[in-house]
Write a structure and sequence with these properties.
elongated; alpha+beta; 3 domains; Dna Ligase, domain 1; six-stranded antiparallel beta sheet; four-stranded antiparallel beta sheet; Rossmann fold; binds manganese (II) ion; single chain; 13 helices; D-amino Acid Aminotransferase, Chain A, domain 1; binds guanosine-5'-diphosphate
């Protein structure tokens, strides 16, 4: 799960990581008071969306007067922003963060993530902040400082000093840097984050300040973090993914023509490969999970049918824990509810597969039952042409 910059900065402050002072506003009328509260003569207006790359796309505006702050708010609030991280549809800007402007002396890069290859929380740091890390990794990989944390130990002050030295920080900044890094590590572990990024971490007047903040959380651990779950902003998420999440389905829109409904992520990927192999491509990834119910199958049908590019649906269920006859009943209930306008091929295999296929065959709906996955795939690819 992603959260907004202002939410990440709130969390940073709770862990003694310094950020610029800021006020979150959702309409331009609030801009004057925000500037008044913050004081000073320079402010930054920052679009709050779940994506980076805002600076390059006009979503971060440096202002030298209250009038300019108001103009920036008017421009951003209620509009959509497209950055290199949002996709072509962009994201809606419902809130902006007005911050006291900082005088940047130096920009650094600092992040924590999980290196899956070595199965460790890993710190990435660089003396060159501001630009995106993928670009840096491609252009100057030797500039990236990498430090992996022993999962049986913890990050200690010596480790932090080592990294501070590599970042060529001046000695007086070491204590601050240690506070920041230990704070980030605590957030990462205590809150089950999957990524924390400060880009840039700036040096200004002898201070280290997190000018930007990004935190992603592990969805699978959200159940034990009520405080974090509350930070979810549905306006920033794909409507279909939200619906799917409600019914415990994993759903991802793709741009092919065959809608897929499969139980198990591995089987879903194999199914998509096979569709590709037979000359077509999947319109979505959908894992209905192990504890499939008639209700979730119905929801899955609805989601697939809302994709404009779908020309046919392939259902591929392996009945291990779930019984195929129950799935068949769920499919029929779903069809009665949402109707059927597209060709559907259903492949059932496993527990009670024969009974399931028989139910579908006798149903009167235009469904093509099939027990062989190859044949099922060829059939749906042909029907969807
Ligand atoms: P991102 O583009 O979405 O990653 O947004 P950032 O929060 O990183 O802001 C983009 C860029 O705007 C930063 O890299 C800075 O160069 C600039 N910027 C942001 N805040 C300030 C500020 O207070 N003062 C100055 N001078 N520049 C800022
Ligand atoms: Mn940034």
């Amino acid at each position: 799960m992603h959260i907004h910059e202002y939410q990440a900065k709130d969390l940073f402050r709770q862990f003694n990581i310094q950020t610029p002072r800021g006020v979150l506003i959702h309409n331009t009328d609030m801009a004057f008071d925000a500037c008044d509260v913050l004081g000073g003569e320079v402010w930054v207006v920052k679009a709050q969306v779940h994506a980076g790359g805002r600076g390059k796309s006009g979503g971060v505006i440096l202002c030298h007067s209250i009038k300019a702050v108001e103009a920036a708010c008017r421009k951003l609030l209620g509009s959509r922003i497209i950055t290199e991280q949002t996709g072509p549809k962009g994201l809606p800007i419902k809130q902006v963060l007005v911050e006291e402007g900082q005088n940047i002396e130096n920009e650094l890069y600092l992040s924590l993530l999980i290196d899956r290859q070595i199965q460790k929380i890993t710190i990435l740091a660089a003396t060159e902040g501001g630009m995106d890390i993928e670009q840096m990794a491609a252009q100057m990989p030797n500039k990236i400082i990498k430090f992996s944390i022993d999962p049986l130990g913890a990050l200690n002050e010596d480790d932090c000093s080592k990294i501070a030295t590599q970042l060529q920080l001046k000695k007086p900044l070491f204590t601050q840097f240690t506070t920041i890094l230990l704070g980030l590590y605590k957030i990462f572990v205590q809150k089950d984050a999957s990524l924390i990024e400060i880009n840039p971490l700036i040096i200004t007047q002898g201070q280290l300040i997190a000018l930007d903040a990004k935190i992603d959380f592990d969805d699978n651990a959200l159940f034990r973090h009520e405080d974090i779950s509350k930070l979810r902003d549905n306006s920033q998420e794909d409507e279909k993914a939200i619906q799917a999440c409600k019914y415990q389905l994993s759903y991802l829109s793709l741009d092919g023509t065959i809608g897929c409904m499969v139980n198990g992520a591995g089987l879903a990927m194999a199914t998509m490969d096979l569709i590709k192999y037979y000359g077509s491509s999947a319109a979505n990834f959908l894992d209905v999970g192990g504890s499939t119910t008639a209700q979730s199958v119905a929801k899955a049908f609805e989601l697939i049918q809302t994709e404009a590019n779908v020309r046919g649906i392939l259902i591929n269920i392996f009945g291990g824990i779930v019984r195929c006859d129950l799935i068949a009943k769920g499919i029929l209930q779903a069809l009665e509810k949402v109707g059927l306008s597209l060709p559907v091929v259903v492949r059932l295999e496993g527990t009670n597969a024969t009974q399931g296929l028989e139910l579908l065959d006798k149903s009167g709906f235009n469904i093509h039952p099939e027990s062989d996955l190859n044949k099922a795939t060829i059939k749906i690819v042909t029907l969807a042409k």
